[in-house]
Amino acid sequence: MAIIEVNGLHKAYNGKPAVDGVTFDVQEGEIFGILGPNGAGKTTTVECVEGLRIPDAGTVRVAGLDPVADHEQVTRLLGVQLQESELQAKLTVREALELYSAFYSDPADWRPLAARLGLESKLTTRFAKLSGGQKQRLFIALSLIGNPRVVVLDELTTGLDPRARRDTWTLIEEIRDSGVTVLLVTHFMEEAQRLCDRIAVIDKGRVAALDTPSGLISRSTASTVISFTPSEPLGERELAALPEASAVEYKGDRVTINGTDETVNAVISLLAVRHVTARQLRVTEASLDDAFLDLTTDATSTAATTTTGTAGTAGTSEETEERV
Ligand code: ADP
Description:
By secondary structure, the chain is α/β, with parallel strands linked by helices. The chain contains twelve helices and 13 strands.
């Protein structure tokens, strides 16, 4: 069953489209990723799901409800991760947990939640004194206090060291395993590949592809790359005619073939039939990175900004629209 349905969503700022016809649905119980370069429209999309922005066109439904018209009910269903600026520096972990519990009529008990998230020993620590990983764990705890059906996590691991990032991934999987659907906004390929059941790749306000991580990889023009130096030359045309081969290139006497697993089998059969040996045979699988580069136009700049990018900011635009 779809718990989130986004259909033909459009949203422009100062006449400039930020989201330009986005359609996807999130099934109950999955970790659904929204992946894309900075400025692609990910946060705007998610803010429309949260009812924080009013779409210019299209529909958004959360459990069948309209996030703007039925804002109160949708707020109860959604656990939204705070941005760092939204929590006072002097608040202790305990105070933050108690404060957020008070917002809900039937909150989860924050004590086991704090224990599950490894915050027990930090209850008297002020927010400003927490490490990056501890802050993120507190944000996760706060987003779960209202017993949500869906939790929305936007660039949760940006700025974390690799260890803290991996710990956070384990927590996200535990949230899903406890029955909560996760909508995860990220520009980390590894994160999306490891965690997400399905991913919508968003580029320039549009869905460039929507699939499982392995589905996205297999769409990549170079899902498997086979390279070797044949003991006898093999014809380029003959290699290009092998099943699923998409490109063949000779550099000196070394040949590189882009294809799929089926192409690998066909190459091996051809070598056997011809009694040709392959020296330094290498088979490499494409990664989600390769698929992403294929699918998006501005992915190189994203790769370079992995630790500095912060979604939810409005960039350098002079006129910024406030959230509702
Ligand atoms: P992402 O989350 O993928 O980085 P955003 O949804 O934050 O993308 O931004 C999409 C585009 O909309 C960007 O060009 C950004 O500068 C612009 N934008 C985002 N928020 C605002 C805002 N509040 N006011 C004006 N422009 C905005």
